[in-house]
């Protein structure tokens, strides 16, 4: 017989004192708030300082009404077209996709913690549980969260689903924001146009223009692509500001949701975090309870249709008075809000100690 089964155990108490954990979480919240508040002003200062020395950009505004929204506010380098495209694509890949991966991971950790928090007090449909537990952020996740906002009872679970819906949408849209934030443009030079024959001669001292007001620039000043056919790559301040503001809102909202789960979810406080393995065990038990044992020959599509007809599920806990052991599971049999878990109780399958084989 197999002898590698895990033995039943009680929840492991965290080493950090409750007051210390609270202090660390409060400090983290203050640090995030300071970062969100100070960063836009720092970005504005850096970009404004850089833009003030760019005489060509100052003297050559965009020809389009909304061109300033997409024009780079600060530019760097002296590239060929191929080099500029490579730099822009590399930035999108490293910054856009890289940061999206980090945001998606954080979002998943907060999502499953919030899911646990909701399932301690509210019945949740099978489809929503499986989507949030097993799927990364996707269009399917957004659709399920939208449905969940209407399917769940109580204003708190609904608000959690609405925020997770907004958070998932932001995670999907982030690479687009990063892509629009950076761009490249052809290098421009300043010329003076002769009123007699319309010939163009290079402007002798472009650096002096940054000390003049725009309306005081020479009337015969013109901008034209540089004869060297070079390109510059840079950022648009307005899109940096938009991206940072949306990221800040996501960061504060996600942190608030995480704090809510850490302080109000008894399962999270016990350190019983959810990942794919934990979710598989919990959900498989609920599915077996709902569908029975004879599910071997059924396809995934058939199981999905069958589960759609079954009641929603939530966490329930109980203590076996005879053995003194506890049991925690996902079930459709609801006795109201889940009872608090006990640090000193050994939790087993069905509340009975399993024999080690």
Please give a structural write-up.
The chain is α+β, with helices and mostly antiparallel strands. It has a domain at 9-55 and 88-180 and 239-331. Helices cover 53% and strands 13% of the residues. It has 11 helices and 10 strands. It has helices spanning 18-51, 55-59, 67-70, 81-119, 126-134, 139-151, 155-181, 237-264, 266-269, 276-291, 300-308, and strands spanning 9-10, 74-79, 182-186, 188-193, 200-202, 221-225, 231-235, 314-319, 326-331, 346-347. A 3-stranded antiparallel sheet has the order 2-7-3. Strands 5-4-6 form a 3-stranded antiparallel sheet. A two-stranded antiparallel sheet has the order 1-10. A hairpin with a 6-residue loop joins strand 8 (314-319) and strand 9. Helix 5 packs antiparallel against helix 6 and helix 6 packs antiparallel against helix 7. The longest helix has 39 residues, at 81-119. The protein is elongated and about 105 Å long. The termini are close together. The model has no long low-confidence stretch (mean pLDDT 82).
């Amino acid at each position: 017989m197999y002898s590698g089964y895990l033995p039943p155990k009680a929840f492991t108490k965290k080493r950090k004192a409750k007051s210390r954990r609270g202090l660390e979480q409060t400090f983290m919240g203050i640090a995030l708030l300071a970062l969100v508040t100070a960063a836009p002003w720092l970005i504005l200062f850096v970009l404004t300082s850089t833009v003030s020395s760019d005489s060509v950009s100052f003297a050559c505004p965009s020809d389009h009404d909304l061109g300033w929204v997409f024009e780079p506010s600060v530019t760097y380098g002296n590239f060929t077209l191929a080099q500029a495209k490579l730099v822009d694509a590399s930035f999108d890949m490293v910054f856009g996709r890289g940061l999206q991966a980090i945001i998606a991971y954080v979002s998943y950790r907060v999502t499953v913690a919030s899911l646990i928090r909701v399932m301690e007090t509210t019945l949740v449909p099978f489809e929503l549980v499986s989507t949030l537990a097993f799927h990364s952020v996707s269009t399917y996740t957004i659709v399920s969260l939208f449905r969940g906002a209407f399917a769940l009872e109580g204003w708190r679970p609904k608000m959690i689903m609405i925020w997770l819906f907004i958070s998932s949408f932001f995670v999907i849209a982030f690479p687009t924001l990063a892509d629009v934030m950076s761009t490249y443009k052809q290098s421009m030079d300043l010329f003076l146009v002769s009123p007699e024959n319309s010939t163009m001669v290079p402007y002798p001292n472009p650096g002096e223009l940054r000390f003049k007001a725009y309306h005081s620039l020479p009337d015969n000043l013109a901008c034209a692509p540089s004869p060297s056919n070079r390109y510059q790559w840079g950022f648009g301040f307005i899109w940096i500001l938009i991206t940072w503001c949306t990221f800040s809102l996501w960061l504060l909202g996600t942190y608030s949701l995480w704090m809510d789960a850490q302080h109000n979810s008894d399962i999270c406080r016990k350190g019983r975090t959810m990942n794919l393995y934990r979710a598989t065990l919990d959900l498989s038990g609920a599915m077996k309870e709902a569908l029975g044992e004879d599910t071997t020959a059924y396809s995934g599509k058939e199981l999905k249709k069958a589960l759609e007809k079954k009641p929603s599920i939530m966490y329930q806990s109980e203590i076996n008075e005879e053995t003194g052991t506890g049991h925690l599971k996902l079930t459709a049999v609801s006795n109201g809000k889940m009872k608090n878990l006990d640090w000193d109780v050994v939790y087993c399958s069905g509340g009975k100690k399993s024999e080690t084989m």
